[in-house]
Amino acid sequence: MRLVITGTPGVGKHTVSSIVAHRLGMRLIDINAIAMNSAIIAMDESTYIVDVDKLADIFKGVEDNTLLVGHLAPYVLDAIDLAIVLRRSPYELRDIYGQRGYSESKAKDNLQSEILGIITHDAVKRFGDNKVVEIDCTGKSAEDVADEIIRIVRHEQDGMLGHIDWLALIVERDELREFFDY
């Protein structure tokens, strides 16, 4: 199996992936680490600009029994068996970005991406909706999320693509202006 764990920065991808790879005996490849070593073409403010075509070439022919992790997965991978998109409430993410010292601009960009479900959209577009599953990590430990992924991989739990809608939550709370300028 070629398993992908992706999602917006701060959702817990790397922590969860380490647990899942260990428990399933899979080779773990960090897409971001390879990008940093092989495909960075520039830096804009505090954001690295990645040559996604070069990175995609690196990942052609990924071996079986591999777990690939990183937010760039939907833009550089093709032949995968299952993509798990980790999602987290923008309210929790806002706190995580504050703890990480993200600039206001970087935090807002990532929060907007999570609210709009950009990575899920791009993963479905790239891999197909039959290969993409969303998991809400809000308030869950990395161990609990890893357990859920393993149950999905082993077909012990339904892995149908759900629909996590943070935008509806924010609109319901009348807090759109906290995350979007308009």
Descriptive account of the structure:
The protein has 182 residues and is an alpha/beta fold. The chain has a single domain, classed as P-loop containing nucleotide triphosphate hydrolases (Rossmann fold), CATH 3.40.50. The protein is built from ten helices and seven strands. The chain has helices at 13-24, 31-38, 52-58, 73-76, 90-100, 104-116, 118-127, 142-153, 166-172, 176-179, and strands spanning 2-7, 27-30, 40-44, 47-50, 66-69, 82-87, 132-136. The strands form two sheets. The protein has a five-stranded parallel beta sheet, with helices on both faces. It has a two-stranded antiparallel sheet with strand order 3-4. It is globular and about 45 Å long. The N and C termini lie far apart (44 Å). The relative contact order is 0.19. The mean pLDDT is 90.
Task: Describe the secondary-structure layout.
Layout (H helix, E strand, L loop, with lengths): L1 E6 L5 H12 L2 E4 H8 L1 E5 L2 E4 L1 H7 L7 E4 L3 H4 L5 E6 L2 H11 L3 H13 L1 H10 L4 E5 L5 H12 L12 H7 L3 H4 L3
Parallel strand pairs: 1-5, 1-6, 2-5, 6-7
Antiparallel strand pairs: 3-4
Helix pairs in contact: 1-8, 5-6
Features:
alpha/beta; Rossmann fold; five-stranded parallel sheet; 7 strands
Contiguous low-pLDDT stretches (5 residues minimum) are none
Task: Please give the order of strands in the largest beta sheet.
Answer: 2-5-1-6-7
CATH class: Alpha Beta
Looking at CATH, which topology would you report? Rossmann fold
Find the structural class using helix and strand composition. Answer: alpha/beta
Determine the CATH superfamily.
P-loop containing nucleotide triphosphate hydrolases
SS field, number of helical segments: 10
Strand content: 15-25%
Helicity level: 40-55%
Major β-sheet, in short?
Answer: 5 strands, parallel
